[in-house]
User: Fold these one by one.
Assistant:
Number 1:
Amino acid sequence: MIHRVQHRFMLLPAPSAVAELLKPITWFPPMWAFACGAVAAGTSPDGRVWLVAAGVVLAGPLVCATSQAVNDWFDRHVDAINEPHRPIPSGRMPGRWGLYVAIAWTLLSLLAAWAIGPWVFAAALLGLALAWAYSAPPLRLKRNGWWGNAACGLCYEGLAWITGAAVMAGGAPSLRSMVLAALYSAGAHGIMTLNDYKSIEGDARMGIGSLPVRLGPMRAAQVACWAMVVPQIGVVGLLLHWGRPWHAATIGLLIAGQIVMMRRFLAAPRERALWLSGFGVPLYVLGMLVAAFALRGLEAGIE
């Protein structure tokens, strides 16, 4: 028994495999959303620089990385079909090390969030709970594309935005900031659907009901487009109501650019989902920053 335990822990994964498991390329969206929330707070980072830096690390290399590790562990059988080169199905992450990394990163994320402050800890706790609920039984929210994508959108955009706003405000974010965070979370539902096109075959075989599997590629594409556009229109309406017409007009132009690309995407959704992610989604996230600067002026009392 002792020999087996020693042998298991001798098979350590290579640092490159751990880094690949944590998927640094996925950290950008929550880090961007955190930055948008921080901008929207309307306060100067003076005296909070280390908190802002810690918050950026929490949003990306900790909480988001945790969600990736959790997902890879519980998706190892699906990845064996869709992405057999991933660290776990390829054997480069031996034994149960994928699970150990997910647990360790969860605890590390909670410790970092606790050190930053209560609002940040609450947001991180909810985000981590959703990350585990998304991938792990018995909930495994990803089996239903409606619920799974909603959980991802909330984690990647809304909670990260709220965390940034809380760090800068030193407490609860404003109601206006939380409303914008909720709208951009809702829009991220469509972005998550675009990501599901790459794994239709494996998802269908393993009982993962992503929207492209449930609705078919065309209907899922239509839902994704509407899910992205409608919340942004809501943002435009709010900015007009709040007296920020130039910011509203800028976001309107960004929406128009997305719609042009969406028309091309809808002509061949399976082939062009990655293309829309690469060229249309940047316009979406740029609109987030425009909205954040609009709110920054309002929170700071700048006309």
Number 2:
Amino acid sequence: MVSEKNDYHISFFRPTTPRALHNRNMVLWLVSIWAVAIFGFQIALYVLEKPTPEPELTAFEKVWENVKAGNASIDEIKTFAHSTLHVAGKVFIASEHRAALDNGISWATMQLADSAQKVAIGNALIHFEEATSNAKLVTDDHYVTSKLKLKALVQPVIGLQPGTVLSEILPLELNSSLTEVITEENKAIIEACMPLYTIHNRSVLTDTKFLGFPFHYFYTAVFLLILFIGLCYAYCVRVDAYNKRMSIAD
């Protein structure tokens, strides 16, 4: 009868030879270094981070109470429009938050416009909305023409310089059905969502520049990659040195 006993069972965690023991210990040391480099840095980021508001949030908070109460001056409404437009221009925003911000921006635009400007902006906005609903591509002539006309009308009202990012996104955030008043529900949403998109955790690790990059980016994208390659190289060198010392030939 042939014996089914396996005399060649190998366990990484229970080495049975000096070479296997040496290999296990070396691997554990190198993995520990790698783990400390990754998770230690993440822990340092967490310990050192400090919530830091964007300037737009600071400006918003200075005028918001007056805007909410209906007592805001022209300059305060303009500041409110700029700060909310800055947030509305961010890429990832919840749909209900964007709708509330659009309500605030649309209301502020009409509040800043005189009677003649209100009529012109209202007509241009309706035409732009119609062009948007009918356009198959953003390069459609009617869409582009309507947007340019609306943009030319609202830029001076809000106080935006032509060619800026805010001036480009402003027509997209206006809604003809949201110009009369900011609803109480949208006021509450605006007040809650502004800090959500304008407060970021920052620390010396994120603000420091190294070789032209933010340090945290350089560390995670470049240094950790170099470290991993270095650890692999160190493993190979140590294995070869041990094999040579023990006269082991692979």
Number 3:
Amino acid sequence: MRVTTCAALCLLSAPGGAAETETISLNYDVVSGCPSRAQFVGEILARTDHAAIADQTQARRLQVNVTREADAFVGVLRISDDKHPPAERSIEGESCQSVVLALAIAAALAIDPDADTRPEATALGAPSTPAPAPNATPRKQAKSATQPSTGTDIPTNARPTNVPRAAKDGAVRVSAGAGLVATWGPAPEVLVTPAPFVGFTWPSDSSLELAIRLQPSFAQTGTLGPAFDAADFRLASLRTEICPASLALASDLALLPCATSDVGVIFAKGRAIAEPASETKFWLALGARGRLVWSLNGWLFVDLAAGLAAAPLRYEYVFRNPKSRIYQPPLFSPNADFSVGGRF
């Protein structure tokens, strides 16, 4: 079902419309799977010629937040400057695309009262039959009648809500949680251990999004994983994971390709022999992996990761008398983990 864009959805109390080009600063923070910041900006610029987006603190500021709550997306547009009280509008809908589109129309009207309010899919989706909004003033510099107009549907449940939403102050998003980590390679048996993590995400103007996760861990053979009869192995390490992009698979599902480095120490000690010796060696592994992230709502998420790492330092562990080799790490080894965390 298609409905026209309601004027009450878009009109937002803010300083008067600008006849000249106005510079606007934008803070755009949405959940995984939503349209990118560049798409949101493109939607505004397609509706008015009187807006320019730049990172200037003295400019009028737009804050856009979209969160996932139960079966709906909730979007908040907040407009503020140094001379007027802030104005805010909340939109709720089943589709993040429809919510972001409604917020873009509201932002365009706040900048330019003559902005084009037709739900055109210039940046946010596939074209369909346009649906003009009632009581909406056409854009002064409208498209030529010889050029076909495109549009997108807005669901009937894309509606305003008066529930207040907290906007983030900074661009960097922080996440934290804990997971169960499985590492092959440093020991003859898989090392399994619980491990906390902290992450940082830097949104960008494009679809790329830099994310870094730090995860310390301490694991020992025979604790959660299987034991090794000839020796005990312990690994204390810090895993650094760098993910340069987030690929949306669905509105609440994303795949992150990542590069990893494990730095730490490996401790080994013989067992079941007379006068067992022990060794402590530096451990380094470099690899690549994929992380599948499922967002349960606006802040809670679970993810599953798996990858392959290479160990440039491959120590040989032996019994001295009589001399016999008991283990040497392979060049390539797999790793995996399951995590639960929250975004703050």
Number 4:
Amino acid sequence: MDLSLRVVRYFVTVAETGHFGQAADRLFISQPALSQQIKRFEAQFGCQLLERSRSGVSLTPAGQVFLDEARALLAAGEAAVARTLRATEQSEIMIAFVAGTPHDLTARLFHAAESMQSDLALNLVRIDWASPFAHLRSGAVDAAILHLPCQEPNIDYQPIHNEPRVAVLPSDHRLAGLEKVSIDDLDPEPMLDSNFNREFWLVIPRPSSREPCVVQPAPNSAEQLMDLVAQRRGIAITAQTVSELYQRPDVVAVPILDIDQVQLGLAWPAEHPASAVLRLADALAVECSP
């Protein structure tokens, strides 16, 4: 079967709008031409994907299954194009970073790029904590600076920075005036959930074997984390740099003395790495070696 991405996009647009006329307007083609293309597409499948009625169109069970697959096909196609274009444009790479990336680390990144190639341009884009790998998988970026550990399949990474983890507390919290705390001190405290590296940030399991008291929501950004802590919705464990870059008078950060530090790493798709990213990872590894 000859699966044209153009017609796949036609199908997705019709399915999302629920109307041939609206879909035709979005696609800048005539409604009769669009309808004919979809009919031919269904004939290739040998089954009906759309139910037509006077009020519009709806998906058949087969159409619903194919809609999910079609969206994945289009995303994969766009990612392939993005990776191919960047592979031919070695003078520029896109790198995403999460909130809490130290300024001196991004400075090291630019320094490493300059040492590799004088005309290599780096473009940085900030991403949310909730979906750190989405940009890598879509091909929107070549690499990302993320808090480790990284357990995502088909993603390679190079550790490039270590720093302590801290407890983020309301300024009038019973532990707020201490110079340091232990993880046992935090056991009875309600703790904001985490939607990335959950066991690491909630410290599971704990030395006391107690389960942390986890509360929602899980913050999607550093700003939201600080807001929720200030509202006394729960305390949080985060990287020291996050607490420094997003500090506010109603929230304090106290170092935790008996848990591992957090690492930041440069991550990239294992199957389609940009050569400039691999060289950049090597340069950063040399810079952070003892």
